Amino acid sequence: MDVELIDRLIDWLAFFLSQQDFGWDWDSWTFVSDLPNYNTQKVFVKNLLTKCCNLTDSKTFIENLPDQLQDLISVNKRGEFKYINENKDNYDAQIILDAMSSRDSKYPNSLYL
């Protein structure tokens, strides 16, 4: 199957599961945790679980999964901004990021110039 089709299937299935409150027989998928990391079934389930985490409160979602599937995903929603101090004199990215994360902008109109 084409990779693009697999990605679309994952997107659709994650959306479908989110509409069903993620009610699924997850125990029937625990066998994939014993498969090698490059196995297509394991990669599919891992990507699906990650996509589901993006659609809901990831902590609650992971806690409701079987232990074998919990080990497949790691949720790190903190971004990595390694070029944040580049051109420090004319670069207000840190201020913008802080304003966006606090939702209380010091520069309410300047972000949309």
State the helix count.
Answer: 5
What's the order of the H and E elements? HHHHH
Instruction: Round the Cα radius of gyration to an integer and report it.
Output: 19 Å
Total beta strand runs: 0
Main structural class: mainly alpha
The percentage of residues in β strands lies in under 5%
Distance between the termini: 44 Å
Oligomer: single chain
Residues in helices, as a percent range: 40-55%
Looking at the structure, what is the overall shape? Answer: globular
List low-pLDDT spans.
none
Could you say how many structural domains there are in total? 2
Describe what this molecule looks like in 3D:
It is a single chain. With 113 residues, this protein is an all-alpha fold. The protein has two domains: 3-70, no CATH class; 78-113, no CATH class. It is built from five helices and no strands. The chain has helices at 3-19, 40-55, 58-63, 67-70, 93-102. Helix 1 (3-19) crosses helix 2. The protein is globular, with a radius of gyration of 19 Å.
